[in-house]
Structure formats: structure tokens, C-alpha cells
Design goal:
Length: 76
């Protein structure tokens, strides 16, 4: 089976919102390859740092919110 890594990255970026703290920091408890790709795309700070969290860039925060709402918000 082949994977669509762009879709995987979108879901990881959306799920990072669940660990949001200090306005722009997120816990980095997701697949390392996906985190590296999100960093390469400019959505998060370098996940290779020793910190247990990464910083969402402005673009990453906006995209994360958009993806989370689109995929996980309840429709009334």
C-alpha cells in the first residue's frame, strides 16, 4: 500500500492542536518523519531540538486550525 504523505502531514498538523499550550507551542508526540516534513514545509520549528515541544509558525497555526475545524468540528 502506498501512502499519501501530504494527507498524513495534514492530519498530524491538525492533531497538533490538541497539545497546544502557551499560544503557539505544541507537544511533539507524533511520528518523527511527519514532524520533519512539517518542519521542511515551514509549519513548525525544528523538531530535532531537545525540547518536548515545537513552535507552530504563524502559517502553521492558521493551517492547523483550519484543518482541525474542517476534519474534526461537529456540524450543527
Amino acid at each position: 500500500m502506498e501512502y499519501d504523505y501530504d494527507k498524513i502531514d495534514e492530519m498530524v498538523l491538525a492533531l497538533l492542536r490538541l497539545g497546544l499550550h502557551e499560544e503557539c507551542r505544541v507537544w511533539k508526540g507524533h511520528d518523527w518523519d511527519a514532524m520533519d516534513r512539517l518542519h521542511a514545509k515551514g509549519f513548525i520549528s525544528n523538531p530535532q531540538a531537545k525540547a518536548k515541544s515545537v513552535v507552530l509558525t504563524e502559517e502553521g497555526e492558521c493551517r492547523s486550525r483550519e484543518l482541525f475545524e474542517r476534519n474534526f468540528a461537529r456540524k450543527s
